[in-house]
Design brief:
The chain is of the alpha/beta class. It folds into two domains: about 170 residues, Rossmann fold (3-Layer(aba) Sandwich), CATH 3.40.50; about 140 residues, Hypothetical Protein Tm841, Chain: A,domain 3 (2-Layer Sandwich), CATH 3.30.1180.10. Helices cover about 40% and strands about 25% of the residues. It is built from eleven helices and 13 strands. Strand 6, helix 4 and strand 7 form a beta-alpha-beta unit. Helix 3 packs parallel to helix 4. The chain starts with a strand and ends in a 7-residue tail after the last strand.
Length: about 325
């Protein structure tokens, strides 16, 4: 049985990793003013997007995920011929219609796939399962990487699904944002109250940076630290602490809303890289998705991992 993994463009995995493991990416459109960008994890497009300071107007940007019909067509065109079973992981249903659109589209896909496979000379049935990752960005990425490892081990689909469902409550994506006013305005537009106007005003005045956590379908401040460099370093230190205590899956992902060559210069990244190597943990780093950058603002840093430690140290 050929098992394929499908993620949306907000899943912060490096392009080389996506290509190596043949992960399929559901695109998301970003509309800023009269210009529409297609977020599909293309590295050059992402670098150009950040280099052109597109996020200066990102507060009023609108993200447009695939609707039900587009999702159905994406699968009929690209997935049902190649795989026998597709594991689909999306950003939280509490933050985007992607999960609900994918779930609704699955019924049409299962109704229409037989003719497509027959035309391509592919025998046998096709099935898919849509899963709400309940986390964001690098949190999605580590869940996807864990799934890749399970597929690589030859695990049965039912066992993979059960393991993924067991990991989701412990999968976290942590973020440090540089501009609180930016993220507060974006959050308000989406109905997210994780950063209030008052906390944004006080934070900007006192240079207090929250370390935000996306887990179990919720976004909330895990800690507050004075100064952006200190906050980033503390977030990475927390990741190191969790690595030493033992992760549920040996992978950590890091993303940055800007020139990804700056990731190695981020405070605490060198220590995180060394800690991961010492404990046999795979460390993946990449530029943040356009969608992530639009929502968190320029200079935002994200780290994701899967750990039973759910309290911030």
């Amino acid at each position: 049985m050929q098992i394929g993994l499908v993620v949306d463009a907000t899943c912060d995995l490096p392009k080389h990793y996506i290509d190596q493991h043949q992960i399929q990416v559901l695109p998301i459109s970003i509309r800023i003013g009269d210009t529409v960008f297609v977020d599909n994890r293309d590295p050059q497009q992402r670098q150009d997007f950040y280099a052109d300071n597109r996020l200066d107007k990102g507060q009023d940007a609108e993200s447009v995920p695939l609707d039900t019909d587009a999702f159905r067509q994406f699968f009929l065109d690209r997935i049902v011929r190649q795989y026998d079973y597709a594991l689909v992981q999306t950003l939280p249903g509490s933050r985007s219609p992607m999960f609900n659109n994918a779930t609704r589209a699955s019924h049409g896909i299962l109704r229409d796939y037989k003719a497509v496979r027959a035309e391509a000379g592919v025998e046998g049935p096709f099935a898919l399962r849509v899963t709400d990752s309940q986390t964001l960005f690098c949190g999605q990425a580590v869940l996807a990487a864990a799934t890749v490892n399970m597929i690589g081990k030859g695990m049965r689909v039912s066992d993979i699904r059960n393991r993924v469902n067991a990991l989701i409550p412990f999968t976290s994506g942590y973020s440090v944002v540089d501009d609180l006013y930016y993220v507060q305005k974006r959050a308000r537009k989406k109905g997210d109250k994780s950063v209030s106007w008052l906390s944004a005003k006080l934070g900007s005045t006192l240079d207090i940076k929250p370390i935000l956590c996306a887990r179990a379908g919720e976004s909330f401040p895990a800690d507050k630290v004075r100064g952006y460099p200190t906050a980033v370093e503390k977030m990475f230190k927390h990741a190191c602490d969790c690595i030493r205590q033992g992760l549920l899956e040996p992978v950590v992902c890091v993303s940055y809303a800007g020139d990804e060559n700056r990731i190695t210069e981020l405070p605490g990244f060198r220590e995180l890289k060394l800690c991961a190597k010492q404990h046999g943990v795979e460390l993946l780093s990449t530029g943040m998705s356009l969608t992530g950058g639009v929502n968190l603002g320029p200079g935002a840093v994200n780290v994701g991992f899967i750990s039973e430690t759910t309290t911030f140290s």
